[in-house]
Amino acid sequence: HDGFYLIFLIRNQYVPADPQRFREKILDLLNRFEQQAKKLQFSADDIHDAKYAFCALIDETIVTQQDPSYFNLQNSWLISPLQLSLFGSQLAGYQFFEILEQLRSRGKDRLAALEVFHYCLLLGFQGKYRIESIESLNHLVARVGDEIDYLKGKKVAFSPFSAIPDQIRNIIHRELPFFWILIFLLIFALLT
Question: How far is CA 138 from the centre of its chain?
Fold first, then answer.
């Protein structure tokens, strides 16, 4: 959670004075995350993918800030983004979504990592969708959220074609006993 809090700070005008020290703090945060996740017995793949998603998010968050006060941090970051130094690639804008699709196809086995990817999307990671369709990204974010709810057992179905319940009928059955409905109809009949 500390890592996600950093995203909020950066987006709300927190500009670290020393980019190198800031980077070291993030690396320390990632190491602590990894140690804690291992203690909680998360899989090595989930830990790796969660770190990848977070690095993609923080890299994108830093380099896309428009305020000139971020210039020093951005210059330092562009030389060596976390995704390059930790994962050997600068293609997180595309690879993030490739990994996301793999996680989605694995379902409950990879739920922990899938949730981290979803949080990153909710916090504004856009990757390749920054130059493509934001509507498609919004649809993907909603879909992943529905899939996570389904995997956790919070929803019965997430099909866009599933039947919508008759809301009035459900409210009547749930909140008004049949006896009161009968009395109401009888009174209404007598008044007319």
Answer: 11
With bands split at pLDDT 50, 70 and 90, how would you rate the model's confidence at 132? Answer: confident
Considering just the CA atoms, what is the radius of gyration of the chain in Å?
24
- Per-residue pLDDT at 128: 92
* CATH-assigned architecture of domain 2-151: Alpha Horseshoe (1.25)
Following DSSP, what letter does each residue of 111-163 receive, concatenated?
Answer: HHHHHHHHHHHHTT--GGGGTS-HHHHHHHHHHHHHHHHHHTTS-S---TTSP
- The phi, psi pair for 164, rounded to 5°, reads -90, 130
183: its two tokens = 């009395």
* Torsion angle of the four alpha carbons 59, 82, 147, 104, in this order, in degrees rounded to the nearest 10: 130
Token duo for residue 72:
């020093």
Query: By CB neighbour count within 10 A (0-12 exposed, 13-18 middle, 19+ buried), where does 167 fall?
Result: exposed
Whole-prediction pTM: 0.77
Dihedral sign, Cα of residue 50, residue 88, residue 10, residue 98: negative
Tell me which DSSP letter residue 13 carries: T
The structure tokens listed for 130 are 């920054």
